[in-house]
Design a protein that fits this description.
The protein has a single domain, classed as 3-Layer(aba) Sandwich (Trna Endonuclease, Chain: A, domain 1), CATH 3.40.1350. Helix content is about 30%, strand content about 35%. The chain has 3 helices and 5 strands. A 5-stranded mixed sheet has the order 1-2-3-4-5. The protein is globular.
Length: about 150
């Protein structure tokens, strides 16, 4: 085996080791597809979409940023091909809630407004681009701001 082949094998091994793990979604575009389904659901429910995949800081991202009346809504979208490993919302554990809280606080600081009402919602999407939506559910006030953060 020559050097180019060895390098190719090494890159494949590294991609497997450091690539996305545990994604039981329906494919590489499942996240974007799920976010599009969630956005349509929220708009039908009367929410205004303010942003998609909003970057906050170096590592923070908010899937959807919406407005429900006078309330700002930070939306996490979880897409799964099926529920064999549980409901999609079960993937929003302590670490994810902490990261979302951090991103929300950073976003709120950029607004430079005081006393902004906000909440965290989760939209579960079960399905795939090929199969379509099997089930979609909007969970309002899915979790509170992480206790280590404060705003206002």
């Amino acid at each position: 085996m020559g050097i180019p082949e060895k390098v190719a094998v090494l890159f494949r091994a590294l991609a497997g080791r450091f690539g996305k793990k545990g994604n039981d979604g329906p494919g590489p575009d499942s996240g974007l597809w799920g976010e599009q389904q969630a956005e349509a659901l929220l708009e039908r429910g009367g929410l205004g979409i303010l942003g998609r995949r909003v970057r906050v800081g170096r590592r923070g991202e908010i899937d959807l940023l919406a407005r429900d009346g006078e309330e700002l809504v930070f939306v996490e979208v979880k897409t799964r091909a099926n529920e064999a490993l549980g409901a999609p919302i079960s993937a929003v554990g302590r670490r994810k809630r902490h990261a979302l809280s951090r991103a929300a606080v950073r976003y709120l600081k950029t607004l430079r407004a005081r006393h902004v009402r906000f909440r965290f919602d989760v939209v579960e999407v079960v399905g795939s681009p090929a199969a379509g939506v099997i089930r979609i559910r909007h969970v309002k006030n899915a979790f509170p701001l992480d206790a280590c953060y404060r705003v206002n």
